[in-house]
Amino acid sequence: MNKTTTGTAMASETSLNSTPALQNVRVLTLRDHAMRYGFLALLFGLVVYFSIAADGFASPISAVFIFQSVSITGILALGVTATLVVDGFDLSIGSVATTSMMTSSYVMVVLGGDATSAVLACLAMGILVGLVNGILIVYMRVPDLLATLGMMFLLVGLQRIPTQGRSIATGMTLPDGTVATGKFSLEFLALGRHRFDVFLPNFLPVSVVILVVLSILIWFFLEYTRYGRMMYAVGSNERAAQLAGAPVRVYKIWAYVISGVFASIGGILLAARIGRGDIASGNNLLLDAVAAALIGFAVLGVAKPNAFGTAVGAVFVGVLLQGLTMMNAPYYTQDFVKGAVLVVALVFTFALSRRSR
Amino acid sequence: MVEEPVFRIRNMQKSFGAIQVLNGVDLTLNAGAVTVLMGANGAGKSTLVKVVSGVYRMDAGEVALAGEKFAPRSPAEAIRAGVVTVHQSINDGVVLDLDVATNLTLDRLSGAGTKLFFNPRRVRREAQKVADRMGLNFDMGATVGDLSLADRQMVAVVRAMAHEPRVLILDEPTSSLSSVEANRLFDLIDLLRSHGVAILYISHRMSDIRRLADSIVSLRDGKISGEFNGPDLDFGGAVDAMLGRKISQDQVVVQDGGKPVFVANNLCLEPGAQPFDLTLGDGEIVAVTGLVGVGKTALAEMLFGVRTCTQGRMVLDDKPYSPRSSQQAIKSGVFLVAKDRSVSGIVPDFNIYENTSLPFLKQISNFGIVNRKSERAEAREQISSLGIVCQSELDEMHTLSGGNQQKVMVARWLGHASRLLILDEPFQGVDIAARRDIANRLRGSAKGRATLVFMTELDEAFEIADRILVMSEHTIVGEHRNADVDIDRLLVEISGLHAEASP
Q: Is residue B109 one of the residues assigned to a domain?
């Protein structure tokens, strides 16, 4: 397919392949439909299958549970989508989230702060990390994977220093021998535990609402604002974007700031859910989020990062894991399943899509 | 004494798809002589080199090396047979991370029949032998990446000589060398010539050609368009044959520029280059022509703020103009349709209307939200006024032909009023019909701005311009009103021969 288009690109318009093009039309539209709706159809098929095969899968409670299970990875995935759009990558999101969790715990438990100051501290940390990532990549010319890999290690270590490597909880002994007396404020915990009364009493968790709101925000930003459009231009052809007058460096740095902020929001929700600063939590966040964003490439067959695809990708993984769990698949098969889905989605994107070059 | 040529090409043909690149080339190379091959862009030089060096296979014709049939199926085979090529990009010929000795003997380290282990001291010794024979005086242990461009080029040539070739092909070896550096290369080539190597030297740098050529062959449109031998070579004739003189100059109704829009004084493109002035009037289209590498793109980039202007001053609409970025240039009303659309123009993931609106998203957005309706309407307008062949403004770029892609690139900048519109090689890879459409649109909309078009092809300049400027050696050397042009003077200026004619 690509062969013929480059062929015509070199020759004059009318000389070549007028008849082959006509023959291709029907085949292409079929294929286009398969590319565009294939993943959504697969998701739908999965839901139908689990509804029949697993008792209780097709219930509002189960649906909410699925969304809740993917809310934090979904938010991280939306952030990393922004960096993928500018043809970058952010490996530090997982550690930004856990650092955010430790930061909020530290502010409340050790410093005795309230929910607002904890949230603000986390967001500030996310912005700062995003800025540093962006500056390393844009001005120091460190390749994106390496810069954010370095940042990941740095944060994993940094978050353990204030408490000498221990988890943070009320009543813990601090390095100077005193006992931490602060505790998680109820408002903060509500972020992870409160459920709104929608449809059913005590039904919709805050984290799911935040996921949905952020999805819509970032989707609108990327698809409908000129800033989002420029970010796509930067990712697709940086030099062309620059010659069209785009401040390419600024857009790139912004992408990492968005990623950092989203990851810190994910960390806040994680801390609010488990109610302590647990150094062992959040190990899987990075891989799950990246997988969701990459699966998102295949959704709608666009072969490029997009917010809708990322959200669907996250839900897809959630549906699959929930269904398998309800059918008594052992927990240790989960990573295998996620990996398999990712590999299939990548083949979908890169081998089958016409847009991939 | 009639000597049998070492290398003889007869009726070589090669096409890619529907495009015939080599159209029956005949060429002979003699031992101990430098044959210069001249040709403009797209004449087929690189294809010829790639066929001879075994990268491509020819469609028809025959090649004989010392009377025997020569049809290499791979570059390695060509080299083993004694036909060695030094390609244009220097860094293709050397491995930067290895030392000089290893580079010189690199080809003995791979291929069938090589030993599994090698002896570094033997490598060093053999490399030294090769270097001594060629008069190369380098530290064999130095890493090639630390050497200057010229030194790397010498290593690449000497490495080629390690094969003891009968035919050596040099593809624009001086294109990134200064004249002092080039002289060292010429000495080396003289030495090779005295060793009896047949050399095919590809270049259009007049100074190289004058220094080296025993004979000149001009290539145009895939055919040999002129052969020049003998003690007094006809350089002017060779340039004519390369550029072709069948030039039609009747379409343009020449307009003289109105009030000056853009004035530049004492601009300098490169340290050491001659400074020059430039005045562009309202409503006129000025073509800047000249061979590849004479600074056309550098000038375009300087006017657009991508390259810093180190000397001289520019004035736009009577106000000082010194852009430091593309944003500032665009804000001042200076637009650039950049050279090589696939690298610096097209956003491949975007469709037509997303590509055309790219620089002016701000103007069609309300509170940052892109107004798609007006965005698409503007694109539709451009599609009809430029005659872009497509189904709708939603078409993806890769479905368009080269000419239509270029129309989209021009449309990107024509939708908004400019003071100075610059186009760098707008007709590269563009078919004649699309070229006419673009030229007509440019001429039709020329009022109210100055237009500057950079192009290597003379015919294109005659087709579009009111005034033609000639660049050579990073400065402007000639000016012609596009009516009764003195073509002889123009060709002389392009070739750089004027430098000797005038004091």
A: yes
Helix (H) or strand (E) holding B22: strand B19-29
CB contact under 8 A, B349 and A227: no
Note whether B367 and B308 are same-domain residues: no
Residues A140-182 pLDDT 10s: 999 999 999 999 999 999 999 988 888 998 888 888 888 888 8
Strand ranges inside B214-259, DSSP E: 215-220, 223-228
Q: Where are the domains of chain A?
A: 38-50+57-352
Q: Number of folded domains in chain B? A: 3
Candidate from A12, A304, A355 with C-beta closest to B403: A12
Chain A residues with a Cβ under 8 Å from any Cβ in chain B: 2, 5, 7-13, 15-16, 224-227, 229-230, 232-233, 235-237, 239-247, 304, 355, 357
From first to last of its 503 residues, chain B has per-residue pLDDT tens of 446 788 999 999 988 776 778 888 999 999 999 999 987 766 788 888 889 888 888 888 889 988 888 888 888 888 888 888 888 776 777 888 888 888 888 776 665 566 667 777 888 888 888 888 777 778 888 888 888 877 888 888 888 877 778 899 998 887 666 667 778 888 888 988 998 899 999 887 777 888 888 999 988 888 888 888 877 777 777 777 777 654 444 567 777 878 999 999 999 988 888 899 999 999 999 999 988 778 899 999 999 999 888 888 999 999 999 999 999 999 999 999 998 898 899 999 999 999 999 999 999 999 999 999 999 999 999 999 999 988 899 998 988 888 899 999 999 999 899 999 999 999 887 777 788 889 999 999 999 999 999 998 787 888 899 999 999 888 999 999 888 788 888 888 887 766 544 43
Residue B275 lies in a domain: yes
Does B412 share its domain with B426? no
Structure tokens given for B105? 């003997």
CA-closest candidate to residue A344, choices A46, A21, A12: A46
Mark out the alpha helices in chain A (DSSP H runs). 2-10, 18-53, 60-85, 93-105, 115-138, 144-158, 186-193, 206-224, 226-236, 238-243, 248-274, 285-298, 307-326, 334-347
User: What's the CA gap between B192 and B167, in Å, rounded?
Assistant: 10
Residue of chain A nearest B19, judged by CA positions:
A11
Cα separation, B213 vs A68, whole angstroms: 78
Same domain, B100 and B232: yes
Last residue of a domain, one of B243, B275, B298: B243
Nearest to A240 among B329, B346, B365 (CB): B346
B403 and B425, same domain (yes or no):
no
Count CB atoms within 10 A of the CB of residue B146: 12
Residue B85: which H helix or E strand, with range? strand B83-86
Residue B249 located in a structural domain: no
What does the alpha-carbon distance between residue B501 and residue A281 come to, in Å, rounded to a whole number?
81
Q: Average pLDDT in the A130-137 region?
A: 97
Same domain, B92 and B211: yes
Which residue of B304, B344, B403 is in closest CB contact with A13?
B403
| Whether residue B412 is found in the same domain as residue B428 | no
Question: Are the C-beta atoms of B130 and B108 separated by less than 8 Å?
Answer: no
Range of the domain at B124: 7-243
Which tokens hold the place of B310?
């180190």
**Residue that terminates a domain, selected from B209, B243, B277:** B243
User: Is residue B251 domain-resident?
Assistant: no
Which CATH architecture describes the domain A38-50+57-352?
Orthogonal Bundle (1.10)
* Domain of residue B457, CATH code: 3.40.50.300
Task: Give the gap in angstroms from C-alpha A326 to the nearest C-alpha of chain B.
Answer: 41
Cβ of B401 within 8 Å of Cβ of A9? The answer is: yes
Based on the fold, state whether residues B405 and B422 are members of the same structural domain: no
With beta carbons under 8 A apart, name residues in chain B contacting A16.
17-18
The answer to whether the CB atoms of B349 and A11 lie below 8 A apart is no
Q: Which residues of B touch A235 (CB under 8 A)?
A: 349
Whether the pLDDT of residue A116 is over 90: the answer is: yes
